[in-house]
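Annex B. Sample input.
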Amino acid sequence: MTNTIRSVQGTEDVLPQQWGWWRRLCGEARRLFEAYGYGQVRTPILEHSPLFVKGTGSTTDIVQKQMYTIQGESDDEDAITLRPEGTPPTIRTYLENQFHKKITFQKFYYIGPMFRKERPQKGRLRQFHQAGVEAVGGASPLLDVETVILARDIYRDVGLENFEIKLNSIGCEECRTEFRQEVYELLDKEREKLCEDCQDRMDRNVFRVLDCKNEQCQEIAERLPTITDYLCEDCSSHHDEVKAALSEEAVDYVEAPHLVRGLDYYTKTVYEITHSSLGARDTICGGGRYDGLVELLGGPSLPCVGFAMGLEASLLAMEAELGDPPSTGVEPVVYVVSFEAAARPESFRLIQRLREAGIPAEMDFEERSASAQMRMADNMNATFCFLMGERELQSGDVLIKHMETGDQWNAPRENAVKEIKKFLEDTE
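Annex B, continued. Sample output.
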């Protein structure tokens, strides 16, 4: 016997009965994205690799370790990569379609799969999904606040309560120069106590240590000075306005002075939404401002802000707090039962007429017995059965059975669909 081919490690199937929370989360996200004025974009899964080297940052773990890249025939410029995140492709779309030469301020959203060479674990996959927004061309602190409220509203509207919004500012390059030097000198004294990854990260980007999930590294990071003490006047004012507007809108948040996010392009505002049910890797959404990214990718100097929700992590939070997903199994309103083979063509015609009327309908396609068909109708929670046998074929009628009450009655086949439709309208 041959071995069964299994799914690729770090990927997972979503079965019909698992779609309940997926549909609710993605449905609420789409509804609120558009209510907030964000238009959908869909970018290719494949992008030129330099987009992420430049955009995400050459020192990030994503670029250093996690990208799925197909090397080009001549040089690295020809390489293509399965997208590991959604922000650089969205900015590439903005520039390639020359929005900066038309209406500069644009708001986009996306929902789709991303790919990283992660060490697979619960909620952390090699193919995963993100839903995110990017607002391009707006420098107002109120735009930062809008994105925070938008993310909060999505989680609140799907029923989550036990999440926390963490907020910080990482300033601009002017702010970070002195801070970077002091952090490096302090960490260098304790380099041997840091995890192996952080010892390597220090010389590439010392702020990576602040983002480490290792418990000992976190303890060391907690003793470091905070960036907010080094903010320039502009960044400090921006941060104060963000906090004031969040408070004005009654948004609960906590200040997280060591929050830096894991990507190079962030400036000023950074934030995360976490959920306590997920353990050490508890982030379900992350975002902030990245005012230098458009210019870095070859466009003009334009401010931007946005966030990305990790859908798998968000769904785990929903399962932990809300329980099993609601059923999304196939539940026909009408199941047509054929008592003999001669009735099958007419049964098929009936389900097609029902479907054309917008009524979910199903029949047996395995030539099972009438009693097996009735059991299937019951298992599928059908509201009605249409019973078709030789007598019904001769009379032009159909026997209708209400599955819950057991009531049965005959109806002309040409009127059967109307009867069911009227019943559904009367019981809405």
